[in-house]
């Protein structure tokens, strides 16, 4: 849900914008941004756009009521983000691959999206390649949230935020790069904290088992749509 307040100004200590992930259990993300001569308020509900009531007396008040009619639309701008949201049990509404493919949407993800396509149950809109995601396609889709990575999409951030609430993550901590470094933040935005905790517990358990058994253990992970992710350990005897 997006509200534009024309001829308004935004007064913040740092002069930037306001963002808050998960202010309530039903609201995923809130952002307040200055766009030209207006202030844009964007609110993403957990399962659907929230209901809104506005009053101006005695002062301006924006009241938000959560709704749960439809599934939120998530646009993933890079394979790493797609992998993360799938691991959290969220299906993409739009996706940008590593190379540009001449098709409007991924109508057969299993054959069109390498490595991850067999885990996708939707037909995501094709946003082009990850370095230049299609702004036009995003405008037409009207996603509830856009998720990308800071190193690749920082320059387009000001344009992306005009379309929908946009979050850019970084999977590097210190000198270590790993996809789990930003899984918690992505989970908070999507309201999937429990799924993130399960993933992190599974990774910790896997690392411990590998340390104890070394090459004597074989590990398989099953990704099942609408169900949790299962890890199977087979011990060679």
TrEMBL record:
Signal sequence range: none
Keywords: Signal, Transport
Pfam family, one: Peripla_BP_2
Protein's GO biological process: iron coordination entity transport
Fe/B12 periplasmic-binding domain mapped to chain residues: 73-237
InterPro entries: ABC_transptr_periplasmic_BD, Bact_iron-sidero_bind
Domain of life: Bacteria
SUPFAM superfamilies according to UniProt: Helical backbone' metal receptor
A GO-annotated cellular component: outer membrane-bounded periplasmic space
Compartmental location: Cell envelope
Family membership noted in the UniProt record: Belongs to the bacterial solute-binding protein 8 family.
Name of the protein this chain belongs to: Fe/B12 periplasmic-binding domain-containing protein
Species assigned in the record: Chroogloeocystis siderophila 5.2 s.c.1
């Amino acid at each position: 849900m997006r509200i534009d307040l024309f001829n308004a100004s935004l007064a913040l200590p740092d002069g930037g914008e306001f963002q808050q992930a998960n202010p309530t259990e039903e609201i995923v993300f809130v952002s307040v941004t200055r766009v030209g001569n207006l202030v844009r308020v964007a609110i993403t509900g957990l399962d659907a756009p929230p209901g809104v009531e506005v009053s101006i007396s005695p002062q301006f008040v924006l009241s938000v009521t959560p709704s749960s009619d439809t599934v939120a639309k998530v646009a993933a701008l890079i394979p790493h983000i797609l992998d993360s949201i799938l691991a959290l049990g969220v299906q993409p509404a739009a996706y940008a691959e590593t190379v540009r493919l001449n098709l409007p949407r991924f109508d057969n993800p299993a054959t069109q999206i390498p490595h991850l396509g067999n885990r996708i149950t939707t037909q995501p809109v094709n946003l082009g390649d990850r370095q230049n995601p299609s702004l036009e396609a995003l405008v037409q889709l009207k996603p509830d949230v856009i998720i990308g990575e800071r190193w690749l999409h920082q320059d387009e951030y000001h344009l992306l935020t005009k379309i929908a609430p946009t979050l850019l993550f970084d999977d590097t901590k210190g000198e270590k790069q790993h996809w789990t470094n930003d899984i918690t933040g992505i989970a908070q935005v999507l309201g999937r904290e429990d799924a993130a905790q399960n993933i992190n517990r599974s990774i910790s358990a896997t690392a411990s088992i590998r340390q104890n058994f070394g090459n004597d253990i074989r590990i398989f992970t099953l990704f099942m749509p609408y169900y949790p992710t299962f890890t199977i350990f087979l011990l060679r005897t």
